[in-house]
Specification:
alpha/beta; 2 domains; 6-stranded mixed beta sheet; binds guanosine-5'-triphosphate; binds magnesium ion
Length: 237
């Protein structure tokens, strides 16, 4: 007996989901416009952005797999092993504070770390808050407060001098160093300015690493395999 009728037609299913998401996007747009002078209007604008992102995921057939485990469980290490490259920073002491997307793409020749404008402005705001704090209370007090994280004390004078944050960083070493600095800046912020959550901002896009990955050579088979995205997450303490 043929079971073909039980097999979903992926292309049709994809189109159905895309048109449904388009309708939801329209509804969110209308709601945010109607409520433009109401505080909830912003909330619907946020929902609309989420739906637009979700639609893009379905268009690209993106499968997102988040790696979630307690702190120091080996999340970043296992992602490096899956990707086959030592691309995410890991160490014996607490490391990941910024969720990071690793987008595996067969059309990429080299890994590249991409930071969107809102991510950069958010991190720059965090940096200037920390600089202000160090200026007001002095370098010594900042270093003393960081006693629990001795490996981060050398970052304090660097924060004081200022960091340049680029939107695209290539090469394994450059990516790893940039991610180490950015993750550590967020951790320093949680110690020196615990009331500020650098990630709790509207539309904070997480850093993305686009990196090469093998793909089956059978074009017919792989046409609808889509892209795998792995998300490294900060482990709860
Ligand atoms: N022996 C052993 N060590 C491991 C294994 N996996 C990871 N490690 C080590 O454990 C430490 C923590 O690994 P990470 O990958 O940074 O762990 P994480 O879960 O990403 O940590 P956070 O980002 O701080 O939450 C590192 O020193 C790794 O080298 C493993 O399977 N065996
Ligand atoms: Mg980690």
């Amino acid at each position: 007996m043929s079971t073909d009728f039980l097999q979903p037609n992926l292309e049709d299913l994809q189109q159905d989901v895309i048109s449904l998401l388009k309708k939801i996007e329209e509804l969110m747009y209308r709601a945010s416009n109607l409520l433009i002078s109401d505080p909830s209007g912003k909330k619907y604008a946020g929902f609309q952005k989420e739906v637009v992102d979700a639609k893009k995921n379905v268009e690209d057939l993106e499968l997102v797999m988040a790696i979630v485990a307690p702190m120091k469980a080996g999340k970043s290490t296992i992602i490096n092993a899956i990707v086959g490259q030592d691309i995410l920073p890991s160490r014996a002491s607490a490391m990941t504070t910024l969720p990071t997307e690793i987008i595996l793409r067969s059309d990429k020749a080299q890994p590249v770390l991409v930071l969107k404008p809102n991510t950069i402005s958010c991190l720059k705001r965090t940096l200037s808050t920390l600089q202000q704090k160090i200026k007001t209370n002095g370098l010594n007090q900042a270093v003393t407060k960081m006693a629990k994280y001795p490996h981060l004390t050398s970052l304090i004078p660097k924060i004081q001098d200022g960091f340049s944050i680029q939107s695209e960083i290539g090469g394994l070493e450059g990516i790893k160093q940039t991610l180490t600095d950015l993750n550590d800046i967020v951790r320093v912020c949680t110690v020196l300015e615990p009331l500020i959550d650098p990630l709790n901002q509207e539309y904070f896009d997480v850093p993305c690493i686009y990196t090469p990955f093998w793909k089956a050579t059978d074009a017919g088979q792989s046409k609808f395999l889509g892209n795998l995205v792995i998300v490294d997450t900060p482990g709860p303490n």
